Amino acid sequence: MATLKFILRKSVSGARCKGSLCLRLIHSRKVKVITSPFRLYPHEWDGAGQRVHLPEEGSPRYPYLCKVTESLCAYGEQFEEAAGRLEKSGRYTVDDILCSYHREHNPANLSGFAGLQERNLLRAGQERTARAYRTVSRGLITFNKGRDIPLSQINACMMKEFEAYLKERGKAMNTISYYMRMLRAIYWKAVKEKLIDARRENPFDHVFTGFQKTRKRALDIESLRALNSLDFSALLERQTQPPVNAHKQLKEAPREDKTTDRALYTSWRYFFFCFHARGMSFVDMAYLRKENIRQGVISYYRKKTGQKIEVTVTPTLQRIIDSFSGEVRHSPYLFPVIRDADRSPRLQYENGLRLQNKRLKKLSALAGIGEKLTTHVSRHSWATIGKKQNLPLWVISEGLGHSSEKMTYTYLASFDRSTLDRANEQIALALVSPPSATAGFACL
Length: 444
Fold this sequence. Notes:
Elements: E1 3-9, E2 19-27, E3 30-40, E4 45-46, E5 51-52, H1 62-89, H2 94-104, H3 110-123, H4 127-143, H5 156-168, H6 173-192, H7 221-228, H8 232-237, H9 246-252, H10 255-276, H11 282-286, E6 293-294, E7 297-301, E8 308-312, H12 315-323, H13 345-367, H14 375-388, H15 393-400, H16 405-409, H17 417-430
Antiparallel strand pairs: 1-2, 2-3, 4-5, 6-7, 7-8
């Protein structure tokens, strides 16, 4: 297996001058050395510990050395990924690793430039955009049979063929738009940094980069009641004070069923917390901290828009919050979606989101609901029920934290088809029946 070691090549001008930090690749007794762009003083490098000595935060060198530390971690991860990939393919040489490194760090190629942008975004805390750049660039390279693509070769014909390739693989139009918009952002950044010249014909002029409206799902009041009346509601009441025969029940219940029930119970609580908190988004719920509650009011800023939202803690919300108190005793968060302080909060949220949507499908089946259940359904349902209760549009808009009433329209479910069919029948009936036969239409 290949190994990577960082070494500091000291300056010929003496110990008071900065030396070059290098990467030493070793495989099958062959050695290759790559000079990194980083320059360090001898006292700033710990060769035995393979780490940078960080000075106090106020030091002028502190930001630079933090950047070096982050880059060394990235180099290590990229090396392990490249070496692991080559290991699976069979025999390889240290030159193969070197070629892989240069290819991935060549800013003139899609992989190298997207990788550079990804690392910059990660340093800025923009994990989601960083992963988006990685995903779409790898998608285009896969379409190109695994071969990297010089940025100068990205053209309208290639993008049109890539769009067709994604359609053939069953990608939705909004997913295709996502790929194209991310690739467009990478392309124009390369143009802005003068790595390539802008083409006369925009490569993205003839591919879909818009947004295709999808049907907003919402539960009617009967379905919500069916979901709310699942046996988990009884568990909620017994959370702080177990029943007398709880030990006996625990002994008798199969371990697998208990684990499944507990997971679905957690999912059920998340769903109804979001619903009762005026259709709060799952991402906003996941990031809620205990400090967000002051004097009986939840105060937070929406992740999507940055708008400040305040929600009064109702008895129902308080019971759900209290039911998680044991799981978040040592956590700053209100809910156990983000648990590990050493891992990326964003990754933990996204894992929690996937798990929540998976469990909601099971909850939907348990409640006998025909509609597909996702985290957004609680938000859409809150808005739709508000509409059916004849709440003014501006009230619903304010409750959801929308910047305009126009945006709220997309959240309001349209009439059920059966309702519209009945309306259509009554309109047709009006042509052949006396006026009294159409009197019921006014109730629709």
